[in-house]
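User: I'm writing a tutorial on reading structure tokens. Could you give me a worked example: one chain, its sequence, then its tokens, then a sentence or two explaining what the tokens reveal?
Assistant: Sure. Here is the example chain.
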Amino acid sequence: MRIQWLISNDIQKRNPKQAGVLALFYPDLEQQTKMLLILRKAYEGVHSNQIGFPGGKVEEGDRSLEETALRETFEEVGVLPTAVEVIKELSELYIPPSNFMVRPYMGFYPEPKPFVKQQSEVEALVEVNLSDFLDNGNRIEETLSTSYAKSIDVPAYKLNGYTVWGATAMMLSEIQDLLEQVL
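And here are its predicted structure tokens:
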């Protein structure tokens, strides 16, 4: 369904807003690798109360989408941009319901400090064990109703008790494929 929609619509004519997000990997106290996701606050909008990566829209002064992703990660979870090693730029992804073109990045946070969540935007931090993320048993298909379709089967991940679907699941799939190539 998504492929057909993308083929039949000229995304550039929609003049999508630009955004950058960061898939942040870091060691926990036992030196096990974790990946950070966030649960967004409930609000009037299409991404209300959803799991995603820290990040957001480009603001005046941002010199690149990578800088946007790092700035937003700092604002949302308190990670200094200078403390992150950006490893890889991932495939951009168009999100029709919000008209955003999102550029994800993978980053490593080698010496993590306690996260500080932005109270106005972040409901919860979701720290996922890398081994759980890479476990194919956590890749599922779920029937959901979205802002553009009712009762649609979507590929998703079940991580830390949350269903992660949509654009974030697509980004996670690319990350999983990349990690499986090197691990």
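What the tokens reveal: The first strand starts at residue 17 and ends at 27. The first helix runs from residue 2 to 8.
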